[in-house]
Specification:
The protein has a single domain, classed as Arc Repressor Mutant, subunit A (Orthogonal Bundle), CATH 1.10.10. Helices cover 46% and strands 13% of the residues. The chain has 5 helices and 3 strands. Strand 1 and strand 2 form a beta hairpin.
């Protein structure tokens, strides 16, 4: 069963309003799992896809980043316990290893580079 999205009105500019999606962690994880293997997809693209999927004008960047960090912790922990890569959410496909965000995620830039290389990305 699909979740009901939370969409809140938000000011945009002086006189405009926009619909802002506040995604759940499950929504973010599903979008990450749909990212193609070996392809680095920016978090901004993930947010735009989520907004479009749920009929919103935008997707909350703070919420998405918070969920991405939680997903990274869960996935990295599962891999450390010996879970197969195919069973975890591949958060490394959403983060440029050279970014500041990569330094704050479980495994860090080195792990992200390693996983992307294992998927065929140079």
């Amino acid at each position: 069963m699909r979740e009901i999205p939370t969409i809140k009105p938000r000011r945009k500019g002086r006189s405009g309003m926009q619909a802002m999606l506040i995604p759940s962690q499950q929504m973010v994880a599903e979008q990450i799992r749909s990212a193609p293997e070996g392809v680095l997809t920016e978090v901004g693209i993930l947010r735009r896809r989520l907004a479009a999927q749920y009929g919103a004008d935008a997707c909350c960047p703070v919420t998405v980043q918070r969920h991405l960090r939680a997903i990274a912790e869960l996935s990295f922990g599962a891999l450390e316990k010996g879970e197969p890569v195919s069973t975890v959410t591949p958060y490394w496909r959403m983060v440029d290893p050279a970014s500041l965000l990569a330094k704050r995620l479980a495994g860090g830039p080195t792990f992200i580079r390693h996983r992307l290389a294992a998927e065929g990305r140079e």
